[in-house]
C-alpha cells in the first residue's frame, strides 16, 4: 500500500484591533446594532473616498516584523472585483501584486506574504430572504499566507496557535475564532511519499476553532486518500467543514470563476513605509511567547511543558512573574497556578481572578516558611478564591497556623494511639502499613493543622519504643 | 521590442464579462457590445507601440504618497436616516433576495 503525506498551507485573516475602520471613521465595536457603524465610505456611496487608518498600518507592520518578513518600502492597494451582497462597492480593497510584506517565518513554517485589506459585511440567510449587516464592512484585516510547509494536522494546529499567540502578545488582534476576528482557510493536498510534485489541493473554508481545523485536516487526508486509492482524481474545489457531521463537503458553487480582475485602486496612493517608521515600530515590539517560554525555562528552571502553558497568554505569564517576584519560588508558583488557579479560571481571565498575584505569592511564602501546611494551604486557597482576602487575614481569622509545637502534637499522637490499641498491637506485630492510618487520624484530630514532619517523628518514636 | 498581438474582443469574452458582472445580455446586445468594445480597445493599441521594457509601471499619476487618518471614531450615518434609502430592511438589516452560495 502506498504511504501518503499531506501538504498543508494556511491562510489566516486577523481583524486588527483598531477603534475605527480601515478607510473611514466608523466604529469597529462588535456589539453594535445592525448597520449602525456605517457611512458613505464603507457602504460604497458614489463620490466617497477612502482614507487609510495609520494605526492599521502600524499593527500590520508589527506582525510583519514579528514574523521576520521583508517589508516593502512601497505597497499598493488594489481592487478585487466581485459581486456579492456583503460587498457594497462591488470590490474589496486589498493588496495584490505589491503586498505590505513577504517572506517571513513562524517557527518552521515560512510565511509567503502578509497583506492588508478591508473586511466584508455579514450575511444572515433566512428561508426566503437574506439579511445584510455592513458593520463589519471596512474593518481592517491582515491576511497571513503561509507556504505549504505543514505536513500534519498537529503541525497546522501548532502554527495557528503560535500565530494567535503572536497577535495577542502584540495586542493587535483579540484572536477570537468564534466571533470571527481570527479566521482560517486550509489548503490541503496529499502525495505519495515518493512523489516530489504536489497533488491537487482542496480549500477548506469557514472553520471556527483550532480543534475543527485539526479535525477537518484529518478528515480531508483520509478523504483524498480514498479518492486516490480508488483510482480517481482529487478535484480542485472549495469545501466547507460541518462540525456536526465531522466532515467536509463540497460547496458545489456553480463553476464560480475566480476572475477578480485586480487593478490598483485609483482612490489610494501607494503606501510608503519610511525606514524611520519601521525603526519606531520595531522598538515597540514586546517579548513574544516563544522567547518568553525560552526565558522561563532558563531563568526559572521550568519544564518546556509548564513554560509553554504559562506563556499561552500574556496576562498569565505576567501573573506568574509577579507571583515569583514575591515568593521567589518559581516551581511552586508554576504548580499552584497551573494546577489550582487554572482549575478555577482560564488563562485569559487571570487578570480578573479574585486571588491577586500578590496574595498567591504570599500564600506560597507561608507554605515555604512552614507557617501553614500544604494541606491547609489548599483550604486557604479556596477561601481566598471565594473572599478575595489575603492569606494572612484568613490564617489569622481562622487560626489555621500550622502547629509544630511538639508538646501539642505529642498529645494528639498519644490520644490517637490510646483509642486504637488494637492497631497499635498489629503495627508492632509487623503491619507497618498502618503508619499512614495513624498519620491520617492525627491530622484529622489537628484539623489539618499539624506539621506532618513533626507527626512522623513523634509517631515513629512512640510506636517503635515498645515500652509504653 | 515586444508588441503583443492586437487584442480582439470576442463574443465569448463579452459573455464571460457579463457573467462576472451578473448581467443578462440578449443575443443582440452581445453582438453590439462585441463590436463596440472591439473598436474601443483599438485606441489603446496605440500604446503598445511604445517600448516600456525598462520603465517602472505607473500605479498612480499623482506624485505624492498616501495620506493617513488617525485612528479615531467619527460620526457614522444616522442609522434611521440611511435605512430609509434602503429598498427593504428588517430590524435594521438590509433585506435582499436569498443568497444561495452553499450547496
Tag the structure with descriptive keywords:
heterodimer, A: 468 residues, alpha+beta, Arc Repressor Mutant, subunit A, 17 strands, B: 103 residues, Histone, subunit A, 9% strand, flat
Quote the beta fraction of chain B. 5-15%
Strand percentage of chain A, roughly?
15-25%
**Total number of strands of chain A:** 17
Indicate the mean pLDDT of chain A: 89
Mean pLDDT figure of chain B: 82
Describe this structure in words.
The complex is a heterodimer of chains A (468) and B (103). Helix content of chain A is 40%, strand content 19%. Chain A is of the alpha+beta class. Chain A folds into 3 domains: 4-281, no CATH class; 289-398, no CATH class; 406-464, Arc Repressor Mutant, subunit A (Orthogonal Bundle), CATH 1.10.10.410. In chain A, the strands form 4 sheets. A 9-stranded mixed sheet of chain A has the order 3-7-8-11-1-12-13-14-15. A 3-stranded antiparallel sheet of chain A has the order 6-5-16, with no helix packed on it. The radius of gyration of chain A is 31 Å and the shape is elongated. With 103 residues, chain B is an alpha+beta fold. Chain B has a domain at 1-55: Orthogonal Bundle (Histone, subunit A), CATH 1.10.20. Chain B is built from 3 helices and 3 strands. Chain B has a two-stranded antiparallel sheet with strand order 2-3. The longest helix of chain B has 19 residues, at 27-45. Chain B is flat. β10 of chain A pairs antiparallel with β3 of chain B.
Amino acid at each position: 500500500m502506498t504511504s501518503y503525506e499531506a501538504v498543508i498551507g494556511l491562510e489566516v485573516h486577523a481583524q486588527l484591533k483598531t477603534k475605527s475602520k480601515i478607510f473611514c471613521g466608523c466604529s469597529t465595536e462588535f456589539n453594535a446594532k445592525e448597520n449602525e457603524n456605517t457611512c458613505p465610505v464603507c457602504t460604497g456611496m458614489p463620490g466617497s473616498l477612502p482614507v487609510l487608518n495609520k494605526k492599521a498600518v502600524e499593527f500590520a507592520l508589527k506582525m510583519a516584523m514579528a514574523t521576520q518578513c521583508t517589508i516593502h518600502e512601497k505597497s499598493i492597494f488594489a481592487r478585487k472585483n466581485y459581486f456579492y451582497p456583503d460587498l457594497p462597492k462591488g470590490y474589496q480593497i486589498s493588496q495584490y501584486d505589491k503586498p505590505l510584506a513577504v517572506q517571513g517565518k513562524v517557527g518552521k513554517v515560512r510565511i509567503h506574504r502578509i497583506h492588508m485589506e478591508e473586511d466584508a459585511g455579514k450575511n444572515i440567510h433566512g428561508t426566503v430572504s437574506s439579511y445584510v449587516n455592513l458593520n463589519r464592512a471596512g474593518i481592517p484585516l491582515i491576511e497571513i499566507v503561509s507556504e505549504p510547509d505543514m505536513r500534519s494536522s498537529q503541525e497546522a494546529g501548532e502554527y495557528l496557535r503560535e500565530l494567535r499567540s503572536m497577535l495577542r502578545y502584540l495586542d493587535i488582534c483579540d484572536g477570537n475564532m468564534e466571533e470571527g476576528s481570527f479566521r482560517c482557510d486550509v489548503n490541503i493536498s496529499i502525495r505519495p511519499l515518493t512523489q516530489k510534485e504536489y497533488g491537487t489541493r482542496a480549500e477548506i473554508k469557514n472553520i471556527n476553532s483550532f480543534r475543527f481545523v485539526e479535525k477537518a485536516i484529518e478528515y480531508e487526508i483520509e478523504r483524498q486518500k480514498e479518492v486516490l486509492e480508488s483510482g480517481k482524481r482529487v478535484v480542485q474545489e472549495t469545501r466547507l467543514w460541518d462540525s456536526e457531521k465531522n466532515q467536509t463537503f463540497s460547496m458545489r458553487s456553480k463553476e464560480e470563476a475566480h476572475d477578480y480582475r485586480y487593478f490598483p485602486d485609483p482612490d489610494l496612493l501607494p503606501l510608503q513605509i519610511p525606514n524611520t517608521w519601521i525603526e519606531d515600530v520595531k522598538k515597540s515590539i514586546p517579548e513574544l511567547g516563544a522567547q518568553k517560554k525560552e526565558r522561563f525555562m532558563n531563568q526559572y528552571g521550568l519544564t518546556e511543558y509548564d513554560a509553554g502553558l504559562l506563556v499561552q497568554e500574556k496576562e498569565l505569564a505576567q501573573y506568574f512573574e509577579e507571583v515569583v517576584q514575591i515568593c521567589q519560588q518559581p516551581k511552586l508558583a508554576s504548580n499552584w497556578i497551573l494546577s489550582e488557579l487554572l482549575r478555577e479560571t482560564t488563562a485569559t481571565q487571570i487578570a480578573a481572578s479574585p486571588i491577586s498575584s500578590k496574595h498567591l505569592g504570599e500564600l506560597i511564602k507561608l507554605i515555604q516558611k512552614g507557617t501553614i501546611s500544604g494541606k491547609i494551604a489548599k483550604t486557604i486557597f479556596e477561601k481566598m478564591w471565594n473572599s478575595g482576602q489575603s492569606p494572612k487575614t484568613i490564617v489569622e481569622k481562622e487560626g489555621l497556623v500550622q502547629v509544630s509545637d511538639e508538646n501539642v502534637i505529642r498529645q494528639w499522637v498519644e490520644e490517637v494511639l490510646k483509642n486504637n490499641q488494637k492497631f497499635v498491637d498489629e503495627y508492632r506485630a509487623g503491619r507497618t502499613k498502618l503508619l499512614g492510618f495513624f498519620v491520617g487520624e492525627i491530622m484529622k484530630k489537628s484539623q489539618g493543622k499539624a506539621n506532618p514532619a513533626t507527626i512522623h517523628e513523634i509517631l515513629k518514636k512512640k510506636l517503635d519504643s515498645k515500652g509504653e | 521590442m515586444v508588441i503583443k498581438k492586437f487584442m480582439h474582443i470576442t463574443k465569448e469574452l463579452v459573455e464571460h464579462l457579463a457573467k462576472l458582472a451578473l448581467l443578462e445580455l440578449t443575443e443582440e446586445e452581445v453582438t453590439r457590445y462585441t463590436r463596440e468594445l472591439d473598436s474601443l480597445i483599438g485606441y489603446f493599441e496605440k500604446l503598445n507601440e511604445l517600448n516600456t521594457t525598462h520603465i517602472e509601471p505607473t500605479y498612480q499619476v499623482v506624485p505624492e504618497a498616501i495620506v493617513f487618518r488617525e485612528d479615531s471614531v467619527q460620526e457614522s450615518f444616522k442609522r434611521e436616516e440611511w435605512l430609509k434609502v434602503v429598498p427593504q430592511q428588517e430590524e435594521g438589516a438590509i433585506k435582499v433576495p436569498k443568497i444561495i452560495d452553499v450547496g
